[in-house]
Structure formats: C-alpha cells, structure tokens
From TrEMBL:
Signal found in the keyword field: no
EC number: 4.3.3.7
NCBIfam families in alphabetical order: dapA
Annotated organism of origin: Diaphorobacter aerolatus
Alphabetical list of SMART domains matching this protein: DHDPS
Pathway named in the protein's UniProt entry: Amino-acid biosynthesis; L-lysine biosynthesis via DAP pathway; (S)-tetrahydrodipicolinate from L-aspartate: step 3/4
A single BP term in Gene Ontology: lysine biosynthetic process via diaminopimelate
InterPro entries: Aldolase_TIM, DapA, DapA-like, Schiff_base-form_aldolases_AS
Full protein name: 4-hydroxy-tetrahydrodipicolinate synthase
Functional description taken from the UniProt entry: Catalyzes the condensation of (S)-aspartate-beta-semialdehyde [(S)-ASA] and pyruvate to 4-hydroxy-tetrahydrodipicolinate (HTPA).
Catalytic activity: L-aspartate 4-semialdehyde + pyruvate = (2S,4S)-4-hydroxy-2,3,4,5-tetrahydrodipicolinate + H2O + H(+)
High-level lineage: Bacteria, Pseudomonadati, Pseudomonadota, Betaproteobacteria, Burkholderiales
Quaternary assembly: Homotetramer; dimer of dimers.
Length: 307
C-alpha cells in the first residue's frame, strides 16, 4: 500500500552546481576531519548543494554505518545547504529498508539508480522507482547511468515516472542527446547534467543544474559557468568553458574518483587513498591536472569578477 508520502509533491529546486563529494580515507577508515573541511571549502565557493555517497563518494565500498557517518559529517559542514543522498541496491526489499532508514534524515532528495546487474524490463524499472518513491519521505532524483547499471530507462518510462509526485528530477548520464532534449523541453523532470563534459550543452539547452565530480577543483569557475549559462550569457560562458574542458578530460582520464582525489591530495587536503579494487591515479594524470591553469577569478560578460 503506498505511504502518505506519495501525496506530498516536492517544491525543491535543484538549480545550480551540486558537488558529489569524494569520501576521504586514511588507513582504510573514513577521514571525517578531511571530509568536513572539504565540504566547508566547497560551500564557500557558492555551490547549490552536496551529494553524499554517490559513485564519486565510493558508496559501493562503504557499509551503511559508514554511509550514515559520512552523511552526518556532510550535514554538519553544509551550513544549511541542501544535501541529497545516494541510495542504491539490486534487491528491492533491502532498498526499501534503506529508504526507511533515511526517511528521518534532513535530506533534499535521494539519488536513486536502477538496480545494477539485473537489467530489468521497463515494467520492472517502473515498479522499482515507484515503490521507492512511495516509501520515501524525500523527493527522488533518478540517476540514469546505464553504463554502470546495465539498465536503460526509455523516454516513455521516464515520462510515466515523472507523473509520480515524489519523482522530481533526473541526473542525466544516459548518453542519449535526443532523450535529454525531450526531457528538458517537456519539463516534467528537472534535468541535471551528470556527465561533466555535457554541462555546457545541457545547460545551454535548458537543463536546471549539474552534479559534477570534476568541480572539486576550480569550483568557483564552475559556479560562475552555471550562472552565466542560466542568465543566457553564452559568449562569456563559452570563454570560461574552454579551459575547463581540459580539466574535465584529465579528471576522467582514469576511473573516477582517482584523478580528482589525486588533485585534492596534492593540495594537502586529504590522502589520495581509495578502497580496493579502486587504485590511485597515476602520477602522470595527477601532474596533468595540477598543471592546468585557469584565470585567477572568473569574470562575467561585463568583465566583472564573479562572486
């Protein structure tokens, strides 16, 4: 039986830049001091919000107790900024238990992918997301990332899911430009660019925001880029986007989040440690990231420095 949460539509606005925070480790334990300091630093750059325990946060390598502790640290450091929480499984019963556990937390949304490995039908995907949305006290952001899950969400399925009052947005990593454009044009779901290389295109076409792992570095430039795009200043945005593309390519030259963790470690903000089977990025890639130079302060179309 659907819960009462189903009748409570969300008014959450997911505009702007969201940071899917890495999870710092030290000696195979979560380094909460480094995580807190990183979240404070990102917050001060003018971002819209945080994503805790997504794929960039190596959530698949964390226990639920570790995830809960990571979330608590981020909420404490967020200073009132909204936080969405990643929630993933391939077993519906376990997933619904996890949703119930998270219902009491102060979250902007749950970021939910299709179940991995199973590759259900479109009917199965409808059932999966509907049951989760029925059970959740928080809005649902669909995480459409078929190259990780093995499941493709068709446009008709997304349209049907968008009719659920608790399913409000999509992190778009689907790789289908036509589907992305239709979702933006129809407006039933807020579209968030999930592939960093697609930020400019998606925002210029009308997407609401972005969840960008590479924006751990040069965060103020990414914030300025999204502001320029949201106000139609395409010329100024294009000038800012050109040098950011080099940084984005290097950030994903090896499996995420290894390169960006290497960059963060070079700043002295955390170790570059990842949990097996993930391995640290090569020195060559981290050297490449650290060598990229961007203007000291991004400027808007009138030549004024951004906030």
């Amino acid at each position: 039986m659907p819960s009462s949460h189903q009748s409570q539509p969300s008014t959450t606005d997911f505009s702007g830049l969201w940071i899917p925070l890495v999870t710092p480790f030290r000696d195979d334990a979560v380094d909460h001091d480094a995580l807190h300091a990183l979240a404070v630093r990102m917050r001060q750059a003018g971002i819209a919000g945080f994503c805790a325990c997504g794929s960039t946060g190596e959530a698949a390598a964390l226990s639920h107790d570790e995830e809960d502790a990571v979330l608590s640290t981020i909420l404490d450091a967020a200073g009132g900024l909204p936080v969405m929480m990643g929630a993933a499984d391939c077993h519906l019963g376990r997933m619904l238990e996890r949703v119930q556990q998270l219902n009491s937390r102060a979250l902007a949304a749950l970021l939910v992918p299709a179940p991995t490995y199973i590759r259900p039908s479109q009917e199965g995907l409808m059932h999966w997301f509907t049951r989760i949305a029925d059970a959740s006290a928080h809005p649902i952001v669909i995480y459409d990332i078929p190259y990780r899950t093995g499941a493709t969400l068709e446009l008709a399925t997304l349209r049907a899911l968008a009719r659920h009052p608790n399913i409000v947005a999509i992190k778009d990593c689907g790789g289908d430009a036509a589907k992305t454009q239709r979702l933006i044009d129809e407006g039933a779901l807020q579209v968030l660019a999930g592939e960093d290389v697609q930020i400019f295109t998606s925002l210029a076409l009308g997407a609401r925001g972005a969840i960008a792992a590479s924006a751990h570095a040069h965060t103020d430039h990414f914030v300025a880029l999204l502001r320029l795009l949201s106000t139609g200043q395409l010329g100024a945005a294009r000038a800012l986007w050109a040098p950011l593309q080099q940084h984005i390519r290097a950030s994903f030259a090896e499996p995420n989040p290894a390169p960006i963790k290497g960059w963060l470690a070079r700043q002295g903000w955390m170790t570059a440690e990842l949990r097996a089977p993930m391995t640290p990025a090569s020195s060559a890639v981290v050297d490449q990231l650290c060598a990229i130079q961007l203007p000291q302060r991004p400027r808007d179309a009138q030549g004024h420095e951004s906030d």
